[in-house]
Specification:
It is built from four helices and five strands. The protein is an alpha+beta fold.
Amino acid sequence: MALDMRSAEVEDIPVLCTLMEQLTGHTVTSDTMENRLKFVAESPFDSLYVCHENGVVVGLLAFRIRENIEDVSRYGEVSVIVVDEQDRRKGVGRFLMEFAERLAVEKGCIRTWLVSGFGREEEVHHFYREIGYEVTGYRFVKRF
């Protein structure tokens, strides 16, 4: 596979909706995706990239810079990563993660991290461990 990365664009909205639906299991409308692109465009910390092969989008990566007051540092956060179902197990996920790690280094981050939900142990947690990520804690959420 000859993979390349570029910033997501408005023209990508239909495929971005499909990829987000594959990730979440929920319908993502074009309006919702357009709002996400606008949010990213206005944010000094967030970026949205597509991975493509010969112009065909095969993956999506959202990357965020997190500033940490505890040790006065920056972390790179992979806030979304999804590979199209038909392109999984072909190296796309590894390519996306390597891209995120390079971004983090370029932006002065001391590490990268991501959050992955329970129930994905078989699907992706093994992959994250395989490429050097470790479980360091839990995320607690209170819904309103």
